[in-house]
Design goal:
This protein is an alpha+beta fold and about 120 residues long. The two termini are about 15 Å apart.
């Protein structure tokens, strides 16, 4: 089951996580207030379903809300969901296979809108 969770890091500040069962697929930065984390979730639910998946390793470009597939310094791949203003909202773990990064983005695209928020 896919779901959102507002977790608290070592500093006690809230952050957003999107999970499949117990596995964290993507996470956000720490926010100053829970309201900001809730706004992040609402924005992902609204904007992820129609957002394009852009492969930056192939020099693809897009504007507005989008998923970006990025190559890390160690040659692996990760996904980030970027807002219209260019700010990264959430990012994934690194994958050795770019196809898995794309599957992560597609999973969020298709499941975020209906995903419950764990209280």
């Amino acid at each position: 089951m896919h779901k959102f969770r507002i977790a608290h890091g070592r500093t006690g500040k809230p952050r957003v996580q999107f999970l499949y069962n117990a596995e964290i697929m993507v996470w956000s930065e720490n926010y100053e207030a829970a309201a900001a984390a809730k706004n992040c979730i609402a924005s992902i639910k609204k904007n992820a379903p129609g957002a394009p998946i852009v492969d930056l390793t192939r020099k693809e470009e897009a504007k507005g809300y989008r998923f970006e597939i990025v190559r890390s310094r160690d040659g692996q791949f990760y996904v980030r969901f970027v807002a219209r203003n260019g700010e990264t909202m959430v990012r994934s773990e690194r994958y050795t296979d770019k196809r898995n990064a794309k599957k992560c983005a597609m999973s969020i695209q298709t499941r975020a809108a209906a995903a419950p928020v764990e209280k």
